[in-house]
Specification:
Elements: H1 3-23, E1 42-46, E2 51-53, E3 62-66, E4 78-85, E5 94-95, E6 98-100, E7 106-109, E8 111-112, E9 118-128, E10 131-143, H2 147-186, H3 192-206, H4 209-221, H5 227-249, H6 256-269, H7 273-299, H8 306-314, H9 318-332, H10 335-347, H11 353-366, H12 368-375, H13 380-400, H14 404-414, H15 432-451, H16 455-465, H17 490-515, H18 517-520, H19 535-560, H20 567-604, H21 610-636, H22 639-668, H23 672-676, H24 678-709
Parallel strand pairs: 2-10
Antiparallel strand pairs: 1-3, 3-7, 4-6, 4-9, 5-8, 9-10
Length: 710
């Protein structure tokens, strides 16, 4: 639709709304919430909404002002106070029944809370003869003496149930959509903009933007995703986390127990894994909102707890609210949980929108801590992901922080208007939870709009400020990609396992590059990749890492095999375990056979013949190429690449036989170099053939896996 066509309807709508707002008579601020005549002569002055420990008198009297037809406040008017409702079993309450207005037209009564906690409703009425001419209603809350303990228990229990529900919901969602995650993540390579949609989807699945960002840390570190493409996913994850907040603001907590019941029945009655996964998601959904329900009930006494109200009023100072939100979210590691608490406080009238926005901003910064911790022991790319997430959040907060009042006014403009005053002291806060949820969504959508065009610049900037680590660090015996937190998402865990297996392959390739040196260039003694260490030391360090990684990968895959898996996932785990074993076997050939053989070759103090050296170099080069092809095939379990390895492997076996024959001919012709180096020459060819055999075994494992999928 043309934008110009929208201008006139908008102007008319705004003018009509303004005229309605100006012309509509103001509702009376007190009295019966169901019916309030405009000429209502009784106004609550003080005392409404108080709370007190049971069996104690209210700290302030209940006061009303009586107005006559002219708007004056006459003295000497009799006002009757009457208890309309009290908690079941309440006894011992005491209320001054009659009072007379003073010179200011005000009448008051003291009230002693009864023996039971709960809501006490008191009516004040102008009493004339035998009739009550007008009424006003007070709502008073009675508390137990240990209400603070009950509040702490309810808040802690509700928060625990909320976080547990998030976990159950996430687990069910991952089981339901997990098989699709591989294709969705792969789609990231096509468009950064599409990455936003993937980030939203992933966060809905994981029910945590922190979990999504931690996943990105692992996948980028594993080389599964490019860092630049992950930036869009981060921005999408921040939008996805607002979905839970919006649902909380819809106040569907009254139906939480129904969700728990339905989810439990679906799990029990479900015949398939998919059905049970759906039931688990519904059950988690119910737990999330029942946790919110418990927290809301526990916080109700805080409506009139003045120390907290005064503290939260100070949070309208942006920096204080920002700090509190960041620290609390970092501690519980769930921005959704903290945002839920903010909404509950707002729904009880304890928190204003202006105070809630800084807390939201702090929660958005605090949620970056989880990914930061996950990146500490990860590689450079993972650290870039965590830092980018932090920079997005801090940059966004910096843009919004200094115009919070204007932002709050904008949020009120686009959010549903609050209901007209009804005499309920907390009624005007009814719209604040929705406003806070909208502020959370608008903030994160704005971040995506602002920063998505800058992702290219951000990627280049982080490349400069996080320099590459020294390469020698790469052969220390530590895992780089494995992440136990992703075991419950098998497709992603398998990607990480494949990435770690490629680390084994990379170490094995470097061993292959080094081991040929003492045979072909005996004068060189330095490591091919790290010239600061000796060749033999480099081989030993790599062998230790290969053994370590094989053990870690196998353990990780065995642990993964105990999760709920599809047949394809089980087959892939089986294939990867034995692929890792083949790579480790190549490392053993180099360490246990070729290293001693190289030492023997050096002790001969004679070189191979020129023809023999050329053949050995060529055969060694073919072995390296096969191993490199294997690493490429493992990355995506590519059947075509595996087929190519098998075809070339058969050809190289024939080439090995040919080279053994030509070497035999040289020995038969009494070529001196060939005669002296005969045993070493033949053994080196045989071991290179064994290495080729292992690369062919890797290819067969990939071929068999893909065959089982079809």
């Amino acid at each position: 639709m043309n934008a110009k066509r929208l201008i006139l309807p908008i102007v008319i709508l705004v003018a009509t709304t303004a005229a309605f707002a100006v012309g509509k008579p103001a509702a009376a601020p007190a009295g019966d919430p169901d019916s309030q005549p405009n000429e209502f002569p009784l106004v609550i002055v003080a005392g409404n909404g108080q709370a007190q420990v049971i069996s104690r008198q209210l700290p302030a009297p209940l006061q009303v002002r009586v107005l006559d037809a002219s708007g004056s406040a006459p003295a000497g008017v009799e006002v009757r106070f009457k208890l309309l409702a009290a908690p079941d079993g309440a006894r011992g309450w005491r209320l001054d029944a009659l009072a007379t207005t003073d010179s200011s037209g005000i009448a008051g009564a003291d009230f002693l809370i009864g023996s039971q906690p709960g809501l006490y409703i008191i009516e004040a009425a102008v009493h004339e003869g035998t009739t009550d001419r007008a009424t006003a209603v007070f709502k008073i809350t009675g508390r137990r003496g240990d209400w603070k303990i009950a509040l702490a228990m309810g808040l802690a229990g509700g928060l625990g149930l909320f976080l547990y529900g998030i976990g159950v919901l996430s687990r069910g969602m991952k089981k339901f959509s997990g098989p699709k995650l591989r294709n969705i993540i792969t789609a990231l390579t096509e468009s950064r903009t599409r990455g936003i949609l993937v980030g939203i989807f992933a966060t809905i699945v994981f029910q945590s933007s922190s979990a999504t960002t931690v996943m990105l840390v692992s996948l980028v570190d594993a080389g599964v995703l490019q860092f630049a493409k992950s930036l869009g996913v981060i921005l999408g994850a921040d939008i996805g986390t607002t979905v839970t907040t919006q649902l909380i603001a819809f106040k569907i907590t009254d139906y939480a127990l129904i969700g728990i019941a339905i989810g439990f029945l679906v799990i029990i009655a479900g015949k398939s894994d998919l059905t049970r996964a759906i039931g688990e998601g519904i059950l988690g959904f119910g737990f999330v909102f029942f946790g919110i329900h418990l927290m809301s009930g526990a916080m109700q006494p805080l409506q009139t707890f003045q120390p907290l109200i005064q503290l939260l009023q100070r949070l309208e100072h942006p920096l204080l609210g920002l700090l509190l939100g960041a620290v609390f979210t970092a501690v519980i590691q769930s921005s959704a949980a903290f945002t839920g608490i903010i909404i509950v406080l707002a729904s009880h009238g304890i928190l204003t929108l202006e105070a809630g926005i800084p807390l939201l901003f702090g929660a958005n910064i605090g949620t970056t801590v989880t990914a930061g911790l996950a990146s500490l022991n990860a590689g450079r790319e993972a650290k870039k992901v965590a830092l980018a997430h932090t920079m997005f959040k801090i940059g966004g907060v910096a843009l919004f922080l200094f115009w919070i009042p204007a932002f709050a006014d904008f949020i009120r403009l686009i959010s549903p208007a609050p209901a007209a005053p009804t005499g309920d002291v907390f009624a005007h806060y009814a719209a604040v939870p929705r406003q806070i949820a909208n502020a959370h969504t608008i903030f994160n959508v704005s971040l995506a709009v602002i920063f998505l065009p800058l992702t290219g610049f951000m990627s280049r900037y982080l490349d400069r400020i996080i320099p590459p680590a020294p390469r020698l660090h790469g052969i220390q015996p530590v895992t780089v990609h494995l992440d136990n937190s992703l075991l419950s998402t098998p497709d992603l865990a398998l990607k990480l396992a494949r990435a770690e297996i490629r680390e084994i392959g990379g170490m094995t390739l470097e061993m292959m590059q080094n081991i040929i040196v003492p045979f072909i260039e005996p004068d060189k003694s330095k490591d091919v990749v790290y010239p600061q260490i000796s060749l033999m030391k480099g081989l030993k360090l790599r062998e230790e890492k290969v053994d370590f990684l094989d053990e870690q990968v196998s353990g990780y895959l065995y642990e993964l095999s105990r999760e709920s898996l599809t047949a394809r996932q089980v087959n892939e785990i089986y294939a990867l375990v034995y692929i890792a074993r083949d790579l480790e076997a190549i490392g053993d050939i180099i360490d246990k056979t070729l290293v001693p053989l190289a030492v023997k070759k050096l002790s001969l103090d004679r070189d191979f013949s020129a023809e023999g050296k050329e053949e050995l170099s060529a055969y060694h080069l073919q072995a390296i190429k096969q191993l490199s092809r294997s690493m490429a095939a493992i990355k995506s379990m590519n059947r075509e690449q595996a087929q190519k390895i098998l075809l070339k492997g058969a050809r190289y076996f024939g080439l090995g036989d040919e080279f053994k024959r030509t070497h035999f001919d040289r020995v038969r012709k009494a070529v001196s170099e060939s005669m002296v180096t005969d045993e070493v020459h033949v053994e080196l060819l045989l071991q290179l053939e064994k290495i080729n055999s292992h690369t062919s075994s890797i290819a067969r494992a990939i071929m068999e896996l893909r065959s089982s999928d079809s």
